[in-house]
Amino acid sequence: MSAIPNTIRRSGVYHFRRVIPAGLRDQLSRGELTCSLHTHDAADARMLSRCLYLRSEELFGVLRGASVLSDQDIAALVQDFYATLLAKDTRDRLMNDLPEPEALRLAKVEHYRLLSERSRIDLASNAFASVELITEAMLARRFGADARFDKPSVRRVQQAMLRAGAEVSETLRARAEGDFNYEPRDKLLVAALAEAPAMAPAAPAAATPPVAATADVPAAIDGLAFSVEANRFRETQLRRKIWEHQTYLQARKTYALFLECLGDRPLAAFTRRDAAAFKSLLEDLPANYGKAAEYRGMTARDC
Fold it and tell me: CB 3.0 to 4.6 Å from 243: which of 36, 54, 185, 237, for a disulfide?
C-alpha cells in the first residue's frame, strides 16, 4: 500500500481509489471510485490523486444536493408529455384545409403501431436510452435547466415516459383510424390525467422552481420541442435501417449537447444565430470531450 493518500500500486503503476459514502452508493451503483493514474512516479501520482480527490468531493456535493421526485411530480410530467403531443395532433388536424390522402393515413397507422411496440419493448428491457433526451427536456421545462435529481428519480421518469409514449402512440393510432374515444389503459397515465386539473406546478423542495417562458423555453411558438422531434428522427432512421446502431447512439450524444447549449424549444424557435453559436462551440471543444475523465462533470461551455 502506497503512503500517498487514496492510491494503490498495481505492477508499479499508481491507481486512484476512494470509497463512496454509504448514502451515495445507490445513486452511483458502485461502492468506490477507481481509475489508473498512468504513472510510476510518486510525485505525479500525489498531484493527480489530490486533483481527483477534489473532483470527487465536487461530485459528492452535487449528488447530496440532488432532489428526489415525488409521485405527483412524475404524474405531472407524464400528463404534460401526453397533453402536449395530443394538442399538437389536434392543432394540425384543425388547421389542415384538405382531406388527408388515404396512403398517408394508413402510413400513420402503421407508424404509430411500431412506435407503441418499440416503447413496450424498451420498457420491458429497461432500455432507457431511447427516452433520455425527452426526459431531460421535460425535467428542464418543469423544474429549470439547473435542477438536479437523484438517479432513481430520473429512472422513474424515464420508465414513466416509456409507458406514456406507448399510450400516446396508441391514442394517435386510434385517431388515425377514426376513433377519438380511445381511453389510455396504463394506470400511471390514467391516474395522471384524472388528477391533471388539480395539479400544481410545484417543484420538490431542493429543486430549482419552474421557470417562466424564456428564450430557452418559449411558450408561444407552436410545434413539438426539439427533444421530441430529435428522438422521433433517430428512431425513424434506425427503424428504416438508414443508420447503424452506432450512428444512432452518436446522434443522441450530439442532440444532448445541442439541448445543453441552446435549450429545448420548438424547431421553429431556433435561428441561424443559434446554429452559428452551436457550430462555434463545437469547433472550440477539445477533441476528447465526452471521453476523457478530466472533462467529466463539466458542461461544454466550461471546457
Answer: 237
C-beta pairs of 16-22 under 8 Å, 24+ apart in sequence: 16/48, 16/49, 16/52, 16/53, 18/52, 18/53, 18/56, 20/60, 21/60
Burial of 94 (0-12, 13-18, 19+ CB in 10 A): exposed
The Cα 252–Cα 227 span in angstroms is: 10
Residue 8 has pLDDT above 60, yes or no: yes
SS (H, E, C) 140-177: HHHHCCCCCECHHHHHHHHHHHHHHHHHHHHHHHHHHC
Residue 171 CA to residue 87 CA, distance in Å, equals 12
Say what the pTM is.
Answer: 0.51
Distance CA 288, CA 293 (A): 9
In this structure, what C-alpha cell is assigned to residue 107? Answer: 402510413
* Contact by Cβ (8 Å): 30, 21: no
3-state secondary structure of 16: strand
Helix residue ranges per DSSP H, the chain: 25-28, 42-64, 71-95, 102-124, 132-143, 151-176, 187-195, 226-239, 245-262, 272-284
Report strand pairing: 13-19 vs 32-36.
antiparallel
142-151: b (≥16 Cβ within 10 Å) or e: bbbbebbbbe
Closest CA to 80 of 176, 172, 185, 195: 195
7: left (phi over 0), alpha (psi -120 to 50) or beta: beta
Mind listing the pLDDT tens digit for each residue in 45-100?
A: 888 988 888 888 877 776 665 567 888 888 888 888 888 889 888 998 898 888 88
